[in-house]
Amino acid sequence: MPQYDIYVRCVECAAVHPMRIRIHLDNGPLEKQSIAETYQGRMRPPQLQAIEGHKTLCLKTGRMFVQENHNQIFLVPSYSSERIT
User: Where are the domains of the chain?
Assistant: First the structure.
């Protein structure tokens, strides 16, 4: 089953930071894609529903934040060498 790392656009500094969460999905994207785009018109799997409200550390400010906009939460295949921006 493919693994995905989750990244979020920071509400503090606007950079993209790792959530440091890895999930397994059967039908995830082949490359970096937002949750909103990946699951447009479909129910999100329980693994993604479980991370709602999860706090992430801003690596620039050191403050915790929650990203609630699914257009700003990204699934990245774990094997990907794509630079996250």
Answer: 3-77
